[in-house]
Amino acid sequence: MIKIGNTINLELNDPESGKKVFKSRILDAETDKIYIDFPVEKNFHKASFFFEGTQFRVWIQGNDQAIYMFDTEVLGKSNGKVPMLMLSDPGKDYYIRIQRRQHFRVDASIDVAVHSMRGEFQAFTTVSVDLSGGGMALILPKEPTLQPDQKINTWLSLHHQSGTIEYVPVVASFIRAIEFSGRLKGMFQFSEIEDTERQKIVQFCYEKQLEMKKKEKISNT
């Protein structure tokens, strides 16, 4: 999984300047530690230094060409012949495997505002049942009745673990509706969405899946 020489990307959530992404290279690895070159912020060419305890979300590419994501923190510096930054390795149980071009779905209840594109119905707010980078399922009111392939304007409210909230506009196409716990669940596919907005949703799904894995790990101990 952890291969010496591979590129590693690190995301830092800075409360003052927002998210920053750094790039580095894996130099060595042990059972619970990863040693990397000092990271360089993307779009810059100067190495960055971080204090012990700094937390990152990182992703690497595995030998199977899938992307693996997990949370880590700085354990310190290794002052050998080659100075290295030492990161914690939480173990494979905490890795999230993301197949390239795959939009994995997670259970997520978020607030969603729904508006008609042509005035066919009155705007309403609802909550999601699940979410992915490619679509979502929403709890629907009895009215209006949506038609297959009908497009709607939606605004998704994403509450991140850091406390920040992002509002993501998406044009979604209605696929079908099914019964769900005595209510109506509508299935939607994202039909018009900017890549930057989709990435926000994918990042939110990563966070949710990591959160679920941590809860499962705690409940099994």
Descriptive report:
By secondary structure, the protein is mainly β. It folds into two domains: 93 residues, Pnp Oxidase, Chain A, CATH 2.30.110; 108 residues, Beta Barrel (Thrombin, subunit H). The protein is 11% helix and 50% strand. The protein contains one helix and 15 strands. The strands form two sheets. It has a six-stranded antiparallel β-barrel. Strand 5 and strand 6 form a beta hairpin. The mean pLDDT is 86. One of its GO terms (molecular function) is cyclic-di-GMP binding. InterPro entries: PilZ_domain, T3SS_YcgR_PilZN.
Which terms would index this structure?
six-stranded antiparallel β-barrel, Thrombin, subunit H, six-stranded antiparallel beta barrel, cyclic-di-GMP binding, Pnp Oxidase, Chain A, mainly beta
SSE map:
Blueprint: E1 7-14, E2 18-29, E3 33-36, E4 40-41, E5 55-61, E6 67-78, E7 84-88, E8 96-98, E9 106-107, E10 111-116, E11 124-131, E12 135-140, E13 151-159, E14 165-180, E15 183-192, H1 195-219
Pfam families: PilZ (PF07238), PilZNR (PF12945)
Domain Type III secretion system flagellar brake protein YcgR PilZN: 3-90
GO molecular function: cyclic-di-GMP binding
